[in-house]
Amino acid sequence: MKFIIEYQRYAVLALVTFLAIVSLLCVPLSAWFWLPFIVFGALGMVGIYDLRQSRHSILRNYPVSGHIRFILESFRPEIRQYMIESDHDEVPFSRQSRGLVYQRAKGAEDKRPFGTIENVYASGYAWLTHSVSPTVIPDKDFRVRVGGSQCKQPYDASLYNISAMSFGALSGNAILALNKGAKKGGFAHDTGEGSISRYHRQGGGDLIYQVASGYFGCRNEDGTFSAEKFAETAADPQVKMIEVKLSQGAKPGHGGMLPAAKITEEIAEARGIPMGMDCISPAAHRTFSTPIGLMEFIAQLRDLSGGKPVGFKLCIGHRREFMCIVKAMLKTGILPDFIVVDGKEGGTGAAPVEFANRVGMPMHEGLTFVHNALRGAGIRNEIKIGAAGKIVSAFDIAQVLALGADWCNAARGFMFALGCIQAQSCHTNKCPVGIATQDPVRQRAVDVGDKSERVARFHHNTLHALAEITGAAGLSDPRNFMPYHFMFRQKDNEFLDGNEMYPYLPEGFLVSGPEIPELSDWHSRWDRSSAETFAPSEIPFGPFKKREMVHNA
């Protein structure tokens, strides 16, 4: 009995082996016994292999039956989100948020009965203050003009656009559906760093051409920037704006590599790279390395594009480095037309866990900092700000506009509109709905006609909802939202006005007038920044305070 208990983990292997032998012995009685013999024999061979392999300890101890663990693990995300996850569990988007997108994309009922399921007294809860005199807004096609005094071809952008997602990370059908939806809805589609593919061109929608460290679509054979190829690409009438990517929220400060095995002819065509070689995206740009160099690069791109709006995208890290960029703007007189602030909660096809979880500043804090740094330098009115980072509802948009953004971008929200189920298998090439894959069979699941309609419908219904809550606040335009229109609960019985939580700092306080004692950290950081270099002139140390020793009698 002790022997049986000790080795019961091999019982399944022994059972399938026994059944295989019995089935083989019964074959003379009926040819149908070949079927169980093949099944049990195959399982027996799997068990023998499990005992001999050295990669998985669990399979060596539990041959055959140990595979149940891996099978269950393979569809754990689906089990969790459909059967276990609550409406508020954010992994990374809650079921409530995803459901809202699905409903608006399909044109289904998006109202809620019975009342809120939010815990309105919990720390972190935020709400919009409404007016006793609400307004009705008939025109819901909200737009902002992007392009300052140095821009010859300004663009009237929607307040809600598709954020950067590259062809290669997404399938051709997904890109085509997104772009066709953007064209139908009259909003912009950011290409991502993978450049402009045939699917972007086929869709015909407005494009924001992203120029990243790999210079895809505008590179020489050695991977350096090609002014000639950029000018050719940027001349496309579909290209409305150019965005220089310095970093992205999910993996700021991290480069990437697309293995040669994953590079198709279509990807090579879009990126301007050779087949059969790994595609490297460096962590940093090679065309510039200083704040002034960045401004000069922006001026060069604006000139090469014929005066189209040019800006940059980043996730805030060292705040002093952004101030270095602002000082370079003042010193050179070159201003970007826009800055997109990406929060560290932003998405990606694949990122190291440490980067996705712990590197970079969340969007609300990053946006507030950029907005106030530009105000402090006296140039906020010259530069538009876009914001990205888990923005899927009208409330999300309104809140971000109040904190200083001029427009918003969303990536995963529009992926949900395409039919993404948050399976989180984007990096495996096995996306169950055909969105984040290059598998030609899997991507057939994306019906371009139907999904493009859903993308356009989601955009339309979201802006309709934005108009409704704008009217509820007594405003005539969502761009009039200010921080004081929102309240933020800090503790169970305490809350702050938005002006206290995310204040607008005085115009020009960094460059004119006496220092404001309450803003000493801002002044100190500004003094340590330089237009000539990102490197710190000194390393600040906090004041040393000796801890008092407490001696017990």
TrEMBL record:
Q: Its GO biological process terms?
A: glutamate biosynthetic process
Q: Which residues form the Glutamate synthase domain?
A: 161-475
Recorded hits in InterPro entries, A to Z, give: Aldolase_TIM, GltB, Glu_synthdom, YerD
Transmembrane domains' residue ranges: 7-25
Matching SUPFAM superfamilies, A to Z? Answer: FMN-linked oxidoreductases
In terms of domain of life, where is this protein from? Bacteria
GO terms assigned for molecular function? glutamate synthase activity
Alphabetized UniProt keyword annotations: Membrane, Transmembrane, Transmembrane helix
Record-stated family: Belongs to the glutamate synthase family.
Record's protein name: Glutamate synthase
The species this protein belongs to is Thalassospira profundimaris
Its lineage opens with: Bacteria, Pseudomonadati, Pseudomonadota, Alphaproteobacteria, Rhodospirillales
